[in-house]
From TrEMBL:
<dbReference type="InterPro" id="IPR008380">
    <property type="entry name" value="HAD-SF_hydro_IG_5-nucl"/>
</dbReference>
<keyword id="KW-0378">Hydrolase</keyword>
<keyword id="KW-0460">Magnesium</keyword>
<protein>
    <submittedName>
        <fullName>HAD-IG family 5'-nucleotidase</fullName>
    </submittedName>
</protein>
<dbReference type="Pfam" id="PF05761">
    <property type="entry name" value="5_nucleotid"/>
</dbReference>
<dbReference type="InterPro" id="IPR016695">
    <property type="entry name" value="Pur_nucleotidase"/>
</dbReference>
<comment type="similarity">
    <text>Belongs to the 5'(3')-deoxyribonucleotidase family.</text>
</comment>
<feature type="compositionally biased region" description="Gly residues">
    <location>
        <begin position="553"/>
        <end position="564"/>
    </location>
</feature>
<feature type="region of interest" description="Disordered">
    <location>
        <begin position="1"/>
        <end position="31"/>
    </location>
</feature>
<keyword id="KW-0479">Metal-binding</keyword>
<dbReference type="InterPro" id="IPR023214">
    <property type="entry name" value="HAD_sf"/>
</dbReference>
<dbReference type="GO" id="GO:0046872">
    <property type="term" value="F:metal ion binding"/>
</dbReference>
<feature type="region of interest" description="Disordered">
    <location>
        <begin position="532"/>
        <end position="564"/>
    </location>
</feature>
<dbReference type="GO" id="GO:0008253">
    <property type="term" value="F:5'-nucleotidase activity"/>
</dbReference>
<dbReference type="InterPro" id="IPR036412">
    <property type="entry name" value="HAD-like_sf"/>
</dbReference>
Length: 564
């Protein structure tokens, strides 16, 4: 039997002569480490090198923070040989409010004319404030939810009204929402925003008129109607009539693609859009931007349309060669190679890697859709990924404009944390003093001193309790004001309460890089080494020196790789 351990002695395995949990006193090659330490001192003391590293580079326009490329996982562009792009919401950035309004109106008309919803439904108005990416629909209870990274619901609406607190607590407070459950539908694409608004708006309208709503059927009807609007190309036909109204013309897009090609990268287009729409949009975006590229197709070594993502990453459909001289893109036959200057449809990941000769981490794919472009490619391959999140520009620009309030909030949060700790400390001290006065035989002098200390401690405790209550109210009010200033219903896109939102969590888990638009790559070298800060565990954030071993992240598999 081991002797009883004293609570005042170090835990076995700590820094003793013979630690139980492993040795940290006998490195295998100490001489080599000592040599490296001497070389480190020489490197850090090299004044000539220090001057070279501090000399200003050639002046270039500063990149606005909202236009930066952000890094979740280190990525060496020098190792990337092939870069692919989605089109919709990636190369083609849409004027969101205009396109959402068009999709909303066309879907609403279809619900009334073909699904026989009451004509009054056709008078609904689109509220762009009520929608953002990363919301979930509860198809059973008719609610819209926003979750944090743990799957806990932070905000919930029924119709256009906040869910009653008692209902919210009963349904979601002590439960995690698991999106695999068919009860929930995850709306993570910009295309899905109108359907969320329709779902809430129709519930609000019909229930206010006394109608009973079958929430599951309503969602399915909206989903089918909006899919039809996209699938039958009626929406895209309207967009093609006035591309300048719906598609943002980015003058930096062509130069950004050219810079990547000049750095030795081959480029490919992989889009779910059909050939006729792809050709029209890409002509609008790129034709005539640079003299070296008379046609948009000159930018790309491989062009694949109607790719059927996410099935492209998991299924085994063949590549079909199309006749690009015709608008409809007549099928010529099954492709046995992927050649520059030709156009293809369908296909699959394994065959793509086989025909191009590139695979795994030599390929970077840039897209906007968490599931179809990012998550599925991460689970099916080792392709590196970059997600385009155009809303970043709005969120960063907005939070920059609220810098003073956010700074004040941050200071109050620190004070609140300190007050909370001190209140607990003073409560413990006060209890100790009161027990001493009640139970210990004290001399008159000691009793008077202890009583005086008790009074002083209680006075300080009461003062700090009042300050803590005030700090809590200030912090909650300021946080609500900042969040609702961005979106009055849902707050910030990437945050939910003190945590990352579910959407922000998925961007972090599955995208190596993320940025607001493809043209942001223009501001970086095609050989750029994108570095992320290393994740730190709480004990490292608290000061453990293992946090200083390396401040930069690694190039290992992404956090979400291999998850179900």
């Amino acid at each position: 039997m081991a002797p009883t351990l004293s609570p005042f002695r170090p835990i076995p395995g700590g820094p003793l002569q013979d630690p139980l949990h492993g040795s940290f006193r006998s490195p295998l090659n100490r001489a080599r480490a000592e040599s490296a330490t001497r070389r480190a001192h020489d490197l850090l003391a090299d004044e000539g090198l220090a001057r070279l590293l501090t000399l200003p580079r050639e002046r270039r326009d500063l990149v606005p923070r909202a236009r930066e490329v952000f890094v979740n996982r280190n990525l060496r562009m020098s190792s990337v040989e092939l870069i692919g792009f989605d089109m919709d919401y990636t190369l083609a950035i849409y004027h969101m409010r205009r396109l959402e309004q068009l999709s909303f109106d066309m879907t609403l008309a279809k619900l009334v004319s073909e699904y026989h919803y009451p004509p009054v439904v056709g008078s609904l108005l689109y509220d762009h404030h009520f929608v953002m990416r990363g919301l979930a629909v509860d198809r059973v209870n008719g609610n819209i939810l926003k979750m944090d990274r743990f799957g806990h619901v932070g905000r919930a609406y029924h119709g256009l009204r906040p869910l009653k607190p008692e209902v919210w607590r009963e349904l979601y407070r002590n439960k995690r929402v698991r999106l695999r459950n068919p009860q929930f539908a995850w709306n993570d694409t910009l295309f899905a925003l109108p359907e969320t608004c329709l779902f809430a708006g129709i519930i609000e309208l019909l229930e206010s008129l006394g109608h009973r709503v079958d929430y599951g059927k309503l969602y399915d009807d909206i989903r089918e109607a909006i899919d039809t609007v996209h699938r039958d190309n009626s929406l895209k036909r309207e967009v093609r009539k006035d591309l300048g109204r719906y598609v943002f013309l980015d003058p930096e897009l062509g130069p950004a693609l050219h810079k990547l090609r000049s750095g030795g990268k081959r480029l490919f287009l992989l889009t779910n859009s059909a050939w006729d729409y792809t050709d029209a949009v890409m002509k609008y975006l790129l034709d005539g931007q640079l003299a070296e590229y008379p046609s948009w197709r000159n930018y790309f070594d491989v062009v694949v349309t109607a790719a059927g993502k996410p099935g492209f990453f998991t299924e085994a459909r063949p590549f079909l060669e199309l006749d690009a001289s015709t608008e409809e893109g007549r099928v010529v036959g099954e492709a046995t190679s992927l050649d520059r200057g030709k156009v293809y449809s369908g296909g699959n990941l394994a065959r793509f890697e086989e025909l191009t000769g590139y695979r795994g981490e030599n390929i970077l794919y840039v897209g906007d859709h968490i599931y179809g472009d990012i998550l599925k490619s991460k689970k099916s391959s080792l392709w590196r990924t970059c997600m385009v999140v155009q809303e970043i520009e709005d969120e960063i620009t907005y939070t920059d404009s609220r810098q003073e309030e956010i700074g004040t909030l941050s200071q109050v949060e620190v004070v609140r944390e300190r007050l909370d700790d001190e209140v607990n400390h003073h409560k413990t001290l006060l209890n100790t003093l009161e027990r001493r006065l009640e139970r210990e035989p004290l001399s008159a002098e000691d009793r008077a001193a202890t009583e005086e200390l008790r009074k002083q401690t209680k006075f300080e405790l009461d003062r700090m309790r009042r300050a803590l209550k005030d700090a809590n109210d200030i912090a909650d009010t300021l946080e609500q004001d900042v969040e609702e200033g961005f979106n009055p219903y849902w707050g910030l896109l990437f945050k939910e309460g003190n945590e990352n939102s579910r959407f922000g969590y998925q961007v972090e888990q599955y995208a190596c890089l993320y940025t607001s638009r493809v043209s942001n790559f223009l501001h970086h070298s095609p050989m750029q080494y994108y570095r992320s800060p290393r994740d730190k565990m709480p004990h490292e954030q608290a000061g453990a020196l293992s946090a200083a071993l390396s401040p930069m992240g690694g190039e290992g598999p992404p956090k979400g790789a291999g998850k179900d």
